[in-house]
Each structure stands twice: as C-alpha cells, then as structure tokens.
Amino acid sequence: MSKRFNIKDQLEKLYIEVPKALLYKAEYKPNKDKGIKGLSNDAKLLYGVLLDRTYLSFHKATTEKDERYIDDKGDIFIYFELAAIEEILNIGTKKAISVRKELINYNLLEEVKVGQGKDIRLYLKT
Q1: Which is it for the CA torsion 105, 108, 114, 115, positive or negative?
Q2: String of DSSP letters for the chain
Q3: Amino acid 1: pLDDT
C-alpha cells in the first residue's frame, strides 16, 4: 500500500549536485606522470555544497528581491564559515582549510576579503 507524499519524506530526497566535470574532466583527475593528485572527493563534495548555497542566494535574489548576496557587478557570492565545512564534511579545522584551498587552487573558488573584521565572500566558479 502506498503512502501519501509528506513534507518530511520530501526533505529526505533533496540532493546536493556535483557537476560531472569534477568527476570526468582530465584537469581534475590524478596524473602520476605529472605528480598531480587530482581533486579530492572532499573538495568535490564541498563544491556541491557551495553550489547549493549559491543557488539559494540566486533564488532569494530573483524571487524575493533579496540582493544581499549579489555584488555591484551582479556576481553571486556566499558566506560559508569554516565551522560549517567541518561539520558538513565531518572533518577537522586543518582538513577544512586544506579542502577549501584545494578548490581555490583548482580555480573553482575565489575568496574576497571585504574589510577588516568582516566575513570573507566566497565566489564559486564554473
């Protein structure tokens, strides 16, 4: 017997998207000849989480006219604390910093400091 769609059930079916390019493109794969480790699975998952947040910022700007996460050039940014990375990926601070830097090194993420004592803006790249 079937059961009705329930809000709790549907929340369990939400997914994090990870672009296929991060899995299949040569630039993200290991290359032993060149001594390249490749993009780690933690970095791929973090990219998906940050992409989800970026979509949320886009949604708020377009449907709710909340443009707090849109800069003067029209680029979407997010705030995502290191503690959140640690919690979501179940890793320590040192590893969270390393994974975030990995995305930066692969030119998939840009950090912009907007002032002393202010949060760092994160711009996800495609």
Answers
A1: negative
A2: ------HHHHHHT------THHHH-GGGS-BTTTTB----HHHHHHHHHHHHHHHHHHHHHHHS---TTB-TTS-B-B---HHHHHHHHT--HHHHHHHHHHHHHTTSEEEEE-STTSPEEEEE--
A3: 52
Q: Which tokens go with 82?
A: 């290191």
Residue of higher predicted confidence among 4 and 34: 34
Confirm if 120 and 107 have CB atoms less than 8 A apart: no
As a whole number of angstroms, the distance between CA 19 and CA 105 comes to 18
Report how far residue 108's alpha carbon sits from residue 29's, in angstroms, rounded to the nearest whole number.
Answer: 14
pLDDT digits (tens, 9 = 90+) for 56-77: 999 888 888 888 999 999 999 9
How many Å is the Cα radius of gyration of the chain?
Answer: 17
The two three-digit tokens of residue 38, written as one number: 């490749």
Cα maximum dimension of the chain: 59
